[in-house]
Task: inverse folding
């Protein structure tokens, strides 16, 4: 079992924590380039960071953590890099699934995972099946994922239901729409973190992050630490969330 750093965790006010944190894990390639390394070295270092952050989320009893692992646009990268990322993805799942299971993590995959290689699809299915009854952190891995694509897929599912006569267009509500998203049954994103300096959402969780607080850092993902993750949570706890209303 993972052990907690009590002093670090004690810095967080549990009553002011977000329920759902999303992270755009950016900067692996730039981190590697600055060190004269191959981009693959940055991705490998990024996986080690992910394990540390998931461990922190588990110890904090965070309800949901979603990470942007591979976007629908990432297929445009050089084939050699895509192949390496697929291998790294498979290696990470194979190596970490039992430890995640032991820590009560429940893993879910967002996006078009059916486009991955059959061996990776099987590993994904096996990992989901292994952890399906766990009650700890909901760990969402967005892979071959795009926010616009997710919204289109949800709209298509509802359109099919209308066509079959199961509901009328007037029946479609925000709640009904959310039930067709990849994150169905989970809370909306409260806090979105992006590393490595860019100030954009990059087609990530467009619906779920409608009222999210944003926290940006220049730190590249391989150097992002549990301490900085805690800093983001503490900053979130200081913000006033009005959801369009006025303060009382």
Result:
């Amino acid at each position: 079992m993972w052990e907690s750093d009590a002093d670090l965790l004690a810095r967080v006010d549990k009553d002011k924590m977000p329920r759902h944190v999303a992270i755009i894990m950016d900067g692996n390639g730039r981190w590697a380039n600055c060190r004269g390394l191959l981009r693959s070295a940055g991705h490998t270092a990024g996986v080690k960071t992910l394990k540390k952050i998931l461990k922190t989320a588990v110890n904090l009893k965070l309800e949901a953590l979603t990470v942007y692992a591979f976007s629908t646009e990432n297929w445009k990268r050089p084939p050699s890099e895509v192949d390496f990322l697929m291998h790294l993805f498979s290696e990470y799942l194979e190596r970490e699934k039992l430890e995640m299971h032991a820590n009560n993590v429940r893993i879910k995959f967002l996006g078009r995972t059916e486009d991955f290689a059959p061996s990776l699809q099987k590993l994904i299915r096996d990992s989901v099946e292994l952890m399906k009854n766990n009650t700890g952190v909901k760990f969402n891995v967005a892979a071959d994922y795009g926010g616009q694509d997710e919204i289109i897929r949800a709209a298509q599912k509802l359109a099919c239901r209308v066509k079959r006569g199961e509901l009328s267009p007037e029946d479609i509500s925000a709640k009904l729409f959310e039930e067709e998203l990849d994150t169905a049954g989970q809370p909306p994103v409260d806090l979105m973190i992006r590393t490595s300096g860019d100030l954009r959402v990059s087609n990530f969780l467009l619906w779920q992050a409608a009222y999210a607080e944003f926290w940006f850092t220049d730190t590249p993902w391989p150097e992002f630490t549990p301490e900085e993750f805690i800093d983001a949570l503490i900053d979130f706890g200081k913000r006033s969330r009005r959801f369009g209303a006025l303060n009382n």
User: Anything to note?
Assistant: The radius of gyration is 18 Å. The mean pLDDT is 95. The beta strands are 20-24, 64-71, 106-110, 138-145, 191-194, 213-216.
